[in-house]
Design goal:
Blueprint lengths: L1 H12 L1 H41 L6 H43 L9 E3 L6 E3 L16
Antiparallel strand pairs: 1-2
The structure holds zinc ion.
Length: 141
């Protein structure tokens, strides 16, 4: 059991899992926005379009036609929600991946090339044995 927990910790702490979790959380928050847009804009539009069929009287029973239209609009709304959410998630994760590679690149060559002189606190080359500013002898770094 302890080994299992350790393995899980290793798995959970890997960068991309955390990225993914953040993506899922952002996606979850975004789903609310998408739902709001859909329910207030796309769904009424679809209901209007599908109810046109009803008013053309293709079905004899008006009640049944309306129920069918509403269900069809709900279904289409769900699909549109899914597509929008998936698309935005894709963009967010892609952006995050790009940002993380941009953030990592300049760090690699960032080995220190200077140090501080302990006497005058000036920046001097890391290999210096004598300070260029105050001429103090420096202990080997
Ligand atoms: Zn100095």
């Amino acid at each position: 059991m302890k080994k299992f927990l350790e393995e899980f910790k290793k798995f959970a702490l890997r960068g991309n899992v955390i990225d993914m979790a953040v993506g899922v959380i952002i996606g979850g928050a975004f789903t609310g926005v998408v739902n709001g847009v859909s329910n207030n804009f796309i769904k009424p539009l679809l209901s209007f379009v599908t109810s046109l069929g009803k008013s053309w009287g293709t079905l004899a029973d008006g009640e049944t036609a309306w129920t069918f239209s509403a269900a069809g609009a709900d279904f289409l709304t769900t699909i549109i929600n899914f597509i929008i959410t998936a698309f935005v998630l894709f963009i967010i994760i892609r952006t995050m991946n790009r940002l993380s590679t941009i953030g990592k690149k300049p760090e690699a060559p960032k080995a220190p090339t200077t140090k501080k002189c302990p006497y005058c606190l000036s920046e001097i080359p890391i290999g210096a044995t004598k300070c260029a500013h105050c001429a103090s002898e420096l202990p080997e770094a």
